[in-house]
Structures are given as C-alpha cells and as structure tokens.
Design brief:
The protein has 389 residues and is α+β, with helices and mostly antiparallel strands. Strands 1, 2, 3, 4, 5, 6 and 7 form a 7-stranded antiparallel sheet that branches. β1 and β2 form a beta hairpin. Bound molecules: ligand C2E, succinic acid (2 copies) and fe (iii) ion (2 copies).
C-alpha cells in the first residue's frame, strides 16, 4: 500500500470502529480488520485484566475452513502472566512491537519463547508473528494484538514486513480509543444493571452477560440462515449484545420481598413481578436511538410466548419481535441451568429437553433450532461467565 492509501485505510477503519459500541463485538472486528489489512491467516487479542493477560478473541482461517459451514471455532479460556517469558507477555510488559519471521527460530538471547501447545492441539503451524501493544499513545497498555502467518498472493506463509509492523502499530493505537469507550460503556451498563436488578453485592453481572452473549450467537445463526445481509447482522449484534443485558432492568421497581423471595410467588406477587416488562420498556420511552428501541422492545417482549399465552401484551408468533423471541430462549436456558433464590439448578439434559418441548408452544421453533445449532458455543460462553459462589 502507498502512504496515501494507508492513511485512507486508517481513517476508514477508525470511523467504523467508533460506530461499534460493544466491547466484544469491537474486538472481533479489530481482529478481522487487522488480519485482512496485512493478509494474515490467524490472530489473537489478549486483554489486560489486573495482573494478567486474558485470551479474549481469536480467529484462524485455516482452522475455520476445516469446519462445516456456519460452525465457529471454540477456544479455551485462559490467562497468562505479564512477564518477559511469553511473546504476548513481553509485548505487554515492555510496550515493544515484536516482528518474528519464524517462531521456530527465536534466538536464545531473547527472554521470550514460543509456546507450541496450541499448535499441537489444533494441528496448526505458526510461523511468522507480529505482536503489538494495544494502547493509545503513552497511556497504559490495555491488551496485545497478535497476528499470525502473513501470506503472499499465492497463500504461501511469509514474514511480516517492516511496513506491516508500522501499519499495525498505528492501527492498534487507533483501535485503542474505540476500545476504551466500549469498555466504559460495558462497565456503565453493568453498574446500571447492578443497581436496578439485584441490589446484591454478590451479583457480578454473570447472568446478564451470559444471556446477552447467548442471544448474539442465536441471532447470528438465525439471521445467516434467513439471508439477512452481513452489515445488518453486524449492526444488530452490537446493539443486541448491550440491549439484551438490560432485559430485566425493570426489576428496579420490584420490592426485595418479591424479588428475593426464597419460595414460590403467590398469584398476586407474580402479577407484580410481571410488571418488570412494561416498567423496563418505559425506561427507554424517548427512543432516541435504535439502541433504545431494541432495548425497550426486549424488556417488553422477553416473556411473551409463541402461542400467545405470555405477558404483558400476548402477541403471537411473528408479531413478537425477533429480539424478544431470542432473549426468551436465552433467558429461560440460563434460568433453568442456574440456581436461583427460588429454585435449584437443573441438569443440562433436563434443560435441553424442556426447551425442545416448548418449541412451537412457548418458543419460536426457528429460534430453538438456531439455539441447538449454537449449543457448543453457548456452553463455552457459560464457562466464560461463571456464577460466583
Ligand atoms: P428468571 O429467574 O430470570 O426466570 C426467567 C424465566 O425462566 C421464567 O419466567 C420462566 O419462564 C423460566 N423459569 C425459571 N425457573 C423455572 C422453573 O423452575 N421451571 C420452569 N418451567 N421455568 C422456569 P417467569 O416465570 O415469567 O418469571 C419471571 C421472573 O419472575 C423470574 O426471572 C424471577 O425473577 C421471578 N420468579 C418467577 N417465579 C418465581 C418464584 O417462584 N419465586 C421467586 N422468588 N421469583 C420468581
Ligand atoms: C439471577 O441470576 O438472575 C439472579 C441471581 C444471581 O444472578 O445471582
Ligand atoms: C459476544 O459477547 O459477543 C460473544 C462472546 C464473546 O465473544 O465474548
Ligand atoms: Fe424477565
Ligand atoms: Fe432474566
């Protein structure tokens, strides 16, 4: 790329990033754009959490091609120390860029080594690697962007050029601004939910993060199958990730005696509980943005049933918003899988049987179908956001 083209590319990317509000959706896009700008086969983003680097997002074209269409790669959650002995740790602790032509030939004089464990397990071969810090100018490091195996026009693996390294370093600094904003938005949403719903110092937002992340996966499956175009899917994923977190925000108005009752609710108590839907929807009454609209719709419709027996308004079938139909399945899956003040956790096979049984009754059969097709990734999300005990 010439200088002018590179500049235009950075401008295009930075305006695109600033449109993405959710941190997980943003990191996925950052990785996709970074890889495509230098034609890299794979990549990983580590985010800094306390003293550790957390393996946060990963992509790999070669491994992806081995999967059936529509399937996603699953990665284990893990963290590494921020020290000079791993490649990402070195970058995070020194702020340097590492451009390694061949990870199999790292000099003994370097403090860091390449960990071949992932390659072995995945039957993959990492050769060239470029790792840059995620930070804005001189501010603290918030993570590491690591891209793997540059390819020439014929698909042969080559080293990253010095130009690539400069470009990606600049790119990472651009992405970091949007990342800071998105992290702040997530933290604000969690704080709001914390105040609204639970009034319980033990609650860490795990339930809302799970329901929201499940909803995004179910939506993507459903939408791809429906032939919804990619741009609309991406934009909806971003809004849905945040709006689904707020599905129960109307519980702010429900008294603790009902909300925390360690037993079955009476009929009157349940009538009060049902108002969390309309109360939640009313919080977004001004509908200033598409986000407000989706958040309001989800709060209002996540307890409606496919056959018209839900609450509060009892629409049927496709008269219920698709986002409501999706959050309904995600919410019940999570409610049944976990312990609540009023119930024990169910065994997974019982949860799945219940969801299948409710297909076409309580739930949209197409959404249930998308849920089962996403089950592996849904299980990995539930590991990512465990309940604190
Ligand atoms: P939630 O705990 O998030 O549960 C969401 C939905 O999961 C429920 O919506 C219901 O459709 C499903 N669900 C949860 N537990 C069970 C179960 O044991 N069996 C079956 N078949 N489905 C279950 P629903 O019923 O409209 O309840 C909405 C909210 O009302 C619940 O949110 C919870 O906060 C509260 N709630 C419902 N029943 C009780 C209860 O008996 N005691 C207490 N303390 N709260 C309740
Ligand atoms: C919930 O899961 O919705 C409430 C209980 C909790 O998350 O600790
Ligand atoms: C999501 O939050 O968008 C899905 C789960 C993840 O990638 O963290
Ligand atoms: Fe609810
Ligand atoms: Fe819920």
């Amino acid at each position: 790329m010439n200088e002018n083209k590179k500049l235009k590319e950075i401008l295009r990317i930075s305006s695109e990033f600033s449109n993405i509000k959710d941190i997980d959706i943003l990191l996925e896009r950052v990785l996709t754009e970074a890889r495509s700008s230098v034609n890299a086969d794979a990549g990983t983003i580590y985010t800094k959490e306390g003293d550790l680097l957390h393996f946060s997002h990963a992509q790999n074209d070669t491994l992806q091609k081995r999967l059936p269409k529509g399937e996603k790669l699953l990665y284990r959650n893990f963290s590494i120390l921020i020290d000079e002995y791993s490649i990402a740790g070195y970058v995070a602790s020194t702020g340097e860029t590492l451009n390694i032509p061949d990870v199999g030939k790292i000099s003994n004089e370097c403090p860091y080594t390449f960990d071949p464990e992932f390659d072995k397990k995945a039957d993959y071969k990492t050769v060239s690697m470029l790792a840059v810090p995620l930070r804005f100018e001189t501010e603290d490091i918030i993570g590491v962007l690591q891209i793997i195996n540059a390819r020439d026009g014929k698909g042969n693996i080559i080293p990253f050029s010095e130009d690539d390294a400069l470009f990606i370093r600049h790119f990472a600094s651009t992405a970091s601004i949007a990342m800071k904003n998105a992290k702040m938005t997530r933290a604000l949403l969690l704080r709001m939910i914390h105040m609204a719903e639970l009034r319980d110092p033990k609650e860490t937002g795990a339930h809302v993060n799970r329901v929201a992340a499940y909803s995004v996966e179910i939506y993507e499956r459903w939408a791809v199958e429906k032939g919804v175009d990619r741009e609309e899917i991406d934009s909806n994923r971003d809004l849905l990730r945040m709006a689904a977190m707020l599905h129960d925000v109307g519980k702010i108005a429900i008294s603790d005696t009902i909300l925390k009752k360690p037993a079955k609710l009476t009929e009157e108590e349940f009538e009060v509980m049902k108002t969390h839907t309309t109360l939640g929807a009313d919080l977004f009454i001004d509908k200033q943005s598409r986000f407000d609209e989706i958040a309001s719709t989800i709060a209002l419709s996540h307890h409606e049933n496919w056959n018209g027996t839900g609450y509060p308004l009892h629409p049927k079938e496709k008269d219920i918003s698709i986002f409501g139909r999706i959050v309904a399945v995600a919410d019940v899956y999570d409610a049944l899988s976990c312990k609540r003040v009023y119930k024990e956790a169910w065994k997974e096979e019982d949860v799945l049987a219940e969801i299948r049984k409710m297909s076409g009754v309580k739930f949209d059969p197409e959404v249930v179908d998308a849920f089962f097709k996403s089950l592996d990734i849904i299980r990995s999300i539930s590991e990512k956001y465990p309940d604190k005990t």
